[in-house]
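Last lecture ended with a question: if I hand you only a sequence, what can you say about the shape of the protein? Today we answer it with a concrete record. The protein is Transcriptional regulator NovG. Below, first the input exactly as provided, then the predicted structure, then a couple of comments.
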Amino acid sequence: MSAISAERKAPTFDIDIHTLLPADSPRFALDQAHIRALAESEAEFPPILVHRATLRVIDGMHRVRAAELRGQHTIGAHWFEGDDRAAFLIAVESNTRHGLPLSSEERKEAASRILRTHPQWSDRSIAERIGWNATGVGALRKEIADPDARPDARVGRDGRVRPATTAEGRRVAAEVIRQNPSASLREIAKQAGISVGTARDVRHRLAQGRPAIPESRRTDRSVGANDPATPVAPVPSPTVDEDTTGRVTAPDLARRITLFDGLRKDPSLRLSESGRLVLHRLHTQLRTTEEWRRLAPTIPLHGRSAVADILSACADDLRGMAQELRCVEDSLTG
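The predicted structure:
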């Protein structure tokens, strides 16, 4: 339930018009023509909303002035119990949802005030409250905000906390992909606190050998020499999957995941028993690579040679199978 609807469910009472103070409203001025039109109508006015602590009108100043023109001394009202900041937010939302629409300048002024009192709110969250657009709010934020004082996270309209920029989220996503190359986009997005679309872009950039964080979004905090968001430069060797230490580079890990994602969407594999088994084996293989990397330091010194021999033999078998698959494809296309 929104704050507005909650107030509308509060008890209605009559209040003396002369005790009311002018609204702390996003409007610059009242529309006199609208006041006269309301006064001349025979409609019964909905209750106004009054800030109990200050007796300021939060929503309904046009109705108050119209009631005065009618010669009324009282008007129906609801109390609002919140603080001044909350009262202003209710005033903005009320004027956005009904009655005369706010002008462009009035919306801009309201956005400016909310940005100062609630800098942690997202651009879209503020835009929805004032009936503006997120792009305009974002541009205004840059004009009035101190870059060093900007919050690291923002609260969206849904109440979820998200990074103020995606730079940190992209860095975390790159690390998640490095640690678990078979992780789904949804899993990457959840762990990194970013959208699925941003997670997809990170994986795509890594697969192309580009940084996970675009140049325009980098900060001194977000990218470092050993940062997983910085792609590992390929080395000039016949084997593109490994660097000089034998570690699989981040771009090539991402490339494997991209290839696997394409196979997972292939109906000929996904809808057949043998195809599903192939996908399962590939998924296991992708996870196994990272698992061995984590387990390797724990292997006792006296057993490492034997483990290495077994892994090498398995790698040779897999390499031979890969060569057979390529030979079959070449024969079909040749």
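Comments.
1. Residues 300-334 form one domain.
2. The CA atoms of residues 226 and 294 lie 18 Å apart.
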